[in-house]
Amino acid sequence: MAELQNDRFLRALLKQPVDRTPVWMMRQAGRYLPEYRATRAKAGSFMDLCRNKELACEVTLQPIERYPIDAAILFSDILTIPDAMGLGLRFEAGEGPVFDRPVRTQADADKLFVPDMHDDLGYVMDAVSTIRKALNGRVPLIGFSGSPWTLATYMVEGGSSKTFSKIKAMMFDNPKLLHQILDTLADSVTTYLNAQIESGAQAVQIFDTWGGVLTPRDFREFSLNYMQKIVDGLIKEREGREIPVILFTKGGGLWLEQMADTGAHALGIDWTLNLADARARVGDKVALQGNMDPTVLYASPERVRQEVANVLASYGKGAGHIFNLGHGVHPEINPETVGAFIDAVVELSPKYHS
User: Fold this and answer.
1) Nearest to 274 by CA among 259, 295, 258, 288
2) Which of 143, 146, 211, 280 could pair with 150 in a Cys bridge, judged by C-beta atoms 3.0 to 4.6 Å apart?
């Protein structure tokens, strides 16, 4: 593998000194870019794009070609694992992912299995190794997965949900069944992320998109415990480097201290928290990633620059901050505004590291 020319992102995750704050965006390869839309049209469907290693590589690199971003993230979907479990995933226009065979009974749960990472999910590993080779050491590659709780919400609900009524009914009425599902998912995610690391991912992120809909007690029992199991089971080092792990629970600001105790290297922070407060709460235990409100990117470049300055000042001086949005970039955002955002981080952050 080519030697890494820019390891700013990896160093910041390990709270090591850097010359400026590294920056990347969740969903940075996506619909806001015209070049992405062109590649997506060429692919046919969204999952066809994910399954084509050359095209997945092409869209992963598009934001890297356009902006001075410090990390690439694998282009894939969080639902690859349940899809590989044979639940009949399809994407419906206007309503998002739908599972033809949701998991709601003991018999459904008994059919779940840890997918084979080379047969069932080999296309993901092919994409990782193809992207890593194409990056040629320019920036590190991030692998990722959904958290067990988040994956389970889609599997039990049968798709997206506003109320989470089916999975919460299961959680309260039949917690044993839900734990069985989550346990299989935790084993699957651990194996999946380790296979990504072996294929070339240099850091991994666990997206717990729906952890924030739980009570503190239920978050610990049904989400955090399974993320802890994954962190414990991940490959710690490869190619002579530590493999950092980022946990991101959207709406998880209440539980930063508990998440910092898992042994993860960094926590993603959404925009509902003040970074200074978050930093005070976790101390030197973990790095922090975030946390500009993605909707700031609808504003003028001048206002975006001001907000970048606010976020940088909020974290303050020293290592351990990765600049990111508090969630994914929206599809309608102007790519030029994104450019203004990235440039502002590059220009305004060095003084916090001198």
Assistant:
1) 288
2) 146
Q: CATH number, domain at 177?
A: 3.20.20.210
Q: Any catalytic annotation for residue 220?
A: no
Domain assignment present for 14: no
Residue 191 lies in domain: 23-286
11 is catalytic: no
For the question of residue 40 being annotated catalytic, the response is yes
Active site residue 241: no
Collect all residues with Cβ–Cβ distance below 8 Å to 18 and sequence separation of at least 6.
8, 11, 12, 319, 353
pLDDT, one tens digit per residue, over 161-207 is 999 999 999 999 999 999 999 999 999 999 999 999 999 999 999 99
* Paired residues of 266 in beta bridges: 246, 287
- State the CB neighbour count (10 A cutoff) for residue 134: 16
Q: How many CB atoms lie within 10 A of CB 178?
A: 23
Q: Among the options 8, 11, 20, 40, which is catalytic?
A: 40
* Radius of gyration for the alpha carbons in the chain, expressed in angstroms and rounded: 19
Whether 88 is covered by a domain: the verdict is: yes
Question: What is the number of domains present in the chain?
Answer: 1
Q: Which amino acid is at 120?
A: D
Asked, for residue 177, whether it belongs to a domain, the answer is: yes
Cα 17 from Cα 323, distance rounded (Å): 15
Point out the catalytic residue in the list 37, 66, 77, 303. Answer: 77
Q: Which of 154, 192, 226, 315 is labelled catalytic?
A: 154
Asked if residue 198 belongs to a domain, the reply is: yes
User: Has 104 been annotated as catalytic?
Assistant: no
* Percent of the chain's residues with pLDDT above 90: 96
Cα–Cα distances (Å) from 110 to 81, 105, 154, in that order, read 16, 9, 17
Q: Per DSSP, what are the bridge partners of residue 141?
A: 72
Mean pLDDT of 214-237: 98
**Could you say which of 8, 11, 27, 305 is catalytic?**
27
Taking the model in full, what pTM does it have? 0.97
Collapsed DSSP state (helix, strand, coil) of residue 322: strand
Tokens (6 digits) for 134: 């194409």
Residue 23 DSSP class: B
Q: How many angstroms separate the CA atoms of 12 and 30, rounded?
A: 25
Question: What mean pLDDT, rounded, does the chain reach?
Answer: 97
